[in-house]
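Team,

Forwarding the record for the chain on the shared tracking sheet. I've put the sequence and predicted structure together so nobody has to dig through attachments.
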Amino acid sequence: MSETTIRLLLVPLDDLVVFPNMNVTLTVDVAGEERVLLVPKSGDEYAGVGTVAEITDRIRLPGGARAVALNGLHRGIAGAAGTDSQGRLYVDVEERPDPEEADGRIRELEREYRAVVEEILELRGDDGRIAAFVRSITEPGALADTAGYSPDLTFEQKVQLLEAVDVRERLELSLEMQRERLALMQVRRRIQEDVESGVEKQQREYILRRQLDSIRKELGDDEASVVEEYRAKIAEAEMPENVLEQAERELSRLERMGDQTPEATVIRNYLDWLLAVPWSKRSDERLDPVHTREVLDADHAGLEDVKDRIVEHIAVAKLRRERGVEDDKRSGVILTLIGPPGTGKTSIGESIARATGREFVRMSLGGIRDEAEIRGHRRTYIGALPGRLVRALRDAGTMNPVIMLDEVDKVGADWRGDPSSALLEVLDPAQNHSFRDHYLDVELDLSEIFFIATGNMAETIPGPLLDRMEVIRFDGYTTDEKVAIARDYLWPRQRERNGLREDEVSVTDDALEKVVEEYTREAGVRQLERELGTLLRKTATRIASEEVEPPVEIGEEAVREALGRQKIFREVAERTAVPGVATGLAATATGGDVLFIEATSHTDGDKLVLTGQLGDVMKESAQIAISTVRALAPQLGIDEDAFEKRSFHLHVPAGAIPKDGPSAGITMATAVASLLTSRPVKHTVGMTGEITLQGRVLPIGGLKQKVLAAHAAGITDVILPERNRADIEELPEKVREDVTFHPVMSIGEVLALALEEEPARRNVAL
């Protein structure tokens, strides 16, 4: 055993840490020992470092128990252990008293530690005794050990501090622990101060309010002034009798409970909304069919059938007013404008409002799923608001505005209710004279509102809601109509937006026609306006850069230079040059479109493969098409063996776009028949129609959109069901002149019209 190592009795301390310079009294038997090693113990785990302590006194406790008073001297590192004859545990201890020398870093840490401890004592409200004790400690190691006196440290942290034999390491550890303790105390103090200040503020405000109430009562000017203000507004509002009763009832509640309670705020919000409804205000409506037609013609080109229906509506309203039947609540009609984007549905609503002298409000319904958006929230909910109808009336400032229900075909439903069901009451002329908003909880007369609904597709509007609507179709524009719209409406608007004057830039009709035919393919004119904006921006840049001198005339070459390469191509002839490809016509949410249905086959199994994201209806049409062609095989000169052990593959390109609908049957059958007979489909032919297993051709919808798309694609022959013959008269005159229509009743007639007489020399496209 070396000179620095001694053998001492080990005294384990359960969940207790004794540091050097600390005095403790323990009920342990130390026999005749003068010094012992106090080692912290947690469970079966002993710390590696203990405190060498000397026994300063032996005490006999009442009852015969013995205790000893101990004074910690310095740290000791426990080594080899053994027991004596009486089973007591002794260990070899390497004594490690703290050195007397201290370098500059230790002194710096000592100063930082004292500063942190003083801040802690200040926050705790120390009376000065502990601070004096800390200042009396001059040894750095003993100063660091004072951190272990804190009740905020855990047992593990105290053991970690005891095991820090090196003074510098111990000071750094103590400083870190005390800093964490200081930060925690500062946070607690801030929270306490915030709470106390909040309570004091509430108490102060309460006292001031009570004093203010007393002053007002002495002056005869209490919260009755607020009540009187509401009473005056209610009298001016000229509310219906039932609404007036509700308003006065709520005002009486406000008067009884005072103006400063939480419930009073709810009542005031309710009265504010009740007063926001323009109960007695109405626009002076102008019911003049001639003036309405003039406004519509000035704002919109084409759309003759749409304009006719709106003028008819105004004329009927005029006669009803003149003949005293304007109060008939059940005779209203809900006009619903259905068509592709960019065809002018929303803007025509603004024109109707301008023509009739009414206010115009637009309500977008796209994507709403909460019934409360229509009916409002009940006042029992926090943050409750009226529905959109009440807010629209507030914004309009009259009870008879034009309200456009935009995107009504995109209303959804979930666990919060079905907004389309709430719209039934709003749009039904037999019910909307007594509409009840959940928030206001009074009846609102909506029968004077001119409702106009818009949507892209009628098929997605719920049936009961669609039943209350009169659908007016916006099927798109012909090329000539688009050129006229571009010349008279879009070009002047874009010219102004791009900072150009009328005498600085002009455009030829040929240039506009090139933009329409080679750079846009849409039912409406939204993309057309974007292309014209691009054309004018580039022209404005050239003029501003002094590259050209105005006036500038834009012709076909300038269009090509500004807009780049051609974007839209007429590819019907190229695509149908090989057997197995037929041109179908489709109606989508964005207007009519031309679809190329491709068919091929191979002698591997007996399957039908369908690709191109086809819906269930088109999948059924494909199966019917195969069966129908097989039944007509003898008439078409197709060998029956051609169907044996043969798989067919039908594909509709643009596979990223979902496609479905009951009008592709004859196109699929034609593609299969073309494949098996090796007779290509005529490139001038487009077709639409569904078929039955017996080969009958069934009628379809959306003919106008489909034919307009066919006309734009250069198709000159359109095959359609016989029962759609009457729809041809609704097509624009220019389209009827350019396109030949072939109404058919059976698939045999379709194939006779669509297929070339002679088989192709080759069956693949290179």
